Amino acid sequence: MITLQKHSSHLIAVLTAVALAGCVKSDQANQTADSTARNLTLAPTESTAAIKDVPAPATEPAKVAPEKKTAQPATKPPARPKPAAPTTLTAASGTRVPLAVSESISTRQAKAGDAFTATVAQDVKDAAGHVVIPAGSAAQGTIVAAEPAPNPNSSGQLTLDVKSVSVRGTSYAVDATVESMDTVMKGRGVTKADAAKVGGGAIAGALVGKLLGKNAKGAVIGGAVGAAAGAAAARASRDIDIILPKGAAITLKLTKPLTVKRTA
Question: Are residues 164 and 205 in the same domain?
């Protein structure tokens, strides 16, 4: 009897454990089923990959083609404006102006106050090389003094004063001095005054010879001696002219700056 009770108790315990295990399995199965149902409900109907738990391949974003840069033309730096050309040109004080006299000037005919002209022989430039007075420009002046030399041992005087110069059609006053002139000296031929000197000497010699010689022969000899003396006196006292031939050089030196208009 006691043995039967033990077996019965043991059997009851086993059956109880089996029942509990069955309940546990049933609960787990229900939980799994519920979880699967929820997953099926939440998953999108179009996505079969999610149902199979296989991750969908990641789609790479479309590559954007790099923009082609349009070649820009090289920009040149803006050109610097050219400085305005000067409207005037100036020859500094001390500048030398070479001239050529237009007509011959001689102390035999010329007198103080007479006008004369000359031509600029070479371009006259400023310090920058600009032509202030072009070659060929006309210069105007006045004869200040014209005196021949009274004898070969003396010097005469020929003084000129340049008053203005015409540049590109405009006349400009000039302050300058004549530094040099290519003059020549030329003795005059026998003039009436010279002949009178010779004749006077001959007459005086003849008178002296006649008085001393008391005959015609003495008068002739005296006349010849007197004529020779008169000729010598004429030669010693004849005038020597100062001549500036046509085209001869005159060097002018500016004593003040000369400013002229510049043409375009």
Answer: no
Q: Is 245 in the same domain as 157?
A: yes
Tell me the pLDDT tens digit for each residue of 10-52.
Answer: 666 656 665 665 554 555 555 555 555 455 444 455 544 444 5
Confidence label for 219 from pLDDT (cuts 50, 70 and 90): very low
Q: Which residue range forms the structural domain that includes residue 101?
A: 88-186+241-261
| Model confidence band, residue 211 (pLDDT cutoffs 50, 70, 90) | very low
- Quick: pLDDT tens for 94-148: 999 999 999 999 999 999 999 999 999 999 999 999 999 999 999 999 999 999 9
Q: Do 179 and 100 reside in the same domain of the chain?
A: yes
Q: How many domains does the chain have?
A: 2
Based on the fold, state whether residues 233 and 246 are members of the same structural domain. Answer: no
Amino acid at 18: V
> Are 152 and 249 part of one and the same domain?
yes
Residue 15 lies in a domain: no
Q: Are residues 178 and 257 in the same domain?
A: yes
Q: Does any domain span residue 54?
A: no
